[in-house]
Amino acid sequence: MSTNEITADAPESISWRHYYGLTKPKVVLLISFTALAGMLLSTPGAVPWQPLVFGLLGISLAAAAGAVVNHIIDQRIDSLMFRTQGRPLPSGRMDTVHAAVFASLLTLGSMLTLWLLVNPLTALLTFLAFIGYAVVYTVFLKRSTPQNIVWGGLAGAAPPLLGWCSVTGEVTTESFILLLIIFVWTPPHFWPLAIKRRHEYARAHIPMLPVTHGVEFTKLQILLYTFMLFAVSLMPFIVHMSGLVYLVGAVVLGAGFIYHAFRLWRSAGDHHAMRTFGFSIFYLSLLFTVLLVDHYIT
To answer: Residue 230: which of 198, 252, 201, 207 has the closest Cα?
Structure first.
């Protein structure tokens, strides 16, 4: 364990930017967007302001808290990987004690907001998602199985369901379909990045799929998952949750994802990995945008 992990002395100056960096703001933004989509899709009319505002706030605070806990637990791993060496904890710009207090305040704020101002079911499900990511995935799955991102992705897939539950107070088939889309999207989204960073994961002794089973096997799994995702993405249309606008968008976007996955599968080494990773983020953002457009014009 490094000195930075156990010290109780803060660095000389900690700015708000260091706290902000701990929350993985780009990830939280995507999570908040999918939670907002779940809220808007849950009702044919306008969403009441209280669950909209406080539900989105509570879910975002929980996502940020999970990110901070992830930073605390993974700081040794982060120090060994070029992509994450500059994060506040491994770089020494933040200490563990301040980060832990920050995570606690975010978690407490999230739970109080959701329980008191939204509904208890959303608070409970959000807390379970937080534990799933911050503890089950980060502490156990990430370090023990090459299927870590598959099962750990369940917690990350929860935001649209949580958003739906914030407004309706219940979990429905439609909200579960939204969760399922992100759940199946997560492996072909993350594995291209894992291919690119496989040597760093190997140095950190993290059993990511390309480390344990090789790059070619991982490429094949990415391709198979994109076909699975294509099928799952049609479910909103099949259950009459959406109309033709969404169907066309899902087919076009799904074909694009399959194209990139196929090119990655056929390419040498990690040649097309980051392009596939980048498209996966574009895919999810636009898929939920099209779902919202369809919801409001049909």
So the answer is: 252
- Exposed / middle / buried, residue 264 (Cβ in 10 Å: 0-12, 13-18, 19+): buried
In this prediction, residue 12 has a pLDDT band, given cuts at 50, 70 and 90, of low
pLDDT in tens, 144-177: 999 999 999 999 999 999 999 999 999 999 999 9
Q: How confident is the model at residue 203 (pLDDT cuts 50, 70, 90)?
A: very high
**Paired tokens of 38:** 């779940």
Nearest one of 239, 252, 245 to 291, comparing CA atoms: 245
pLDDT tens for each residue of 237-291: 999 999 999 999 999 999 999 999 999 999 999 999 999 999 999 999 999 999 9
- On whether the CB atoms of residues 210 and 200 are closer than 8 A, the answer is no
Stated pTM of the model: 0.92
Show Cβ contacts of residue 248 under 8 Å, excluding neighbours closer than 6 positions.
Answer: none
DSSP calls for the chain: --HHHH--SPPS---HHHHHHHT-HHHHHHHHHHHHHHHHHT-SSPPPHHHHHHHHHHHHHHHHHHHHHHHHHTHHHHHH-TTTTTSTTTTTSS-HHHHHHHHHHHHHHHHHHHHHHT-HHHHHHHHHHHHIIIIIIIIIIHHH-TTHHHHHHHHHT-HHHHHHHHHHSS--HHHHHHHHHHHHHHHHHHHHHHHHTHHHHHHTT---HHHHT-HHHHHHHHHHHHHHHHHHHTHHHHTTSS-HHHHHHHHHHHHHHHHHHHHHHHSSTTTTHHHHHHHHHHHHHHHHHHHHHHHHH-
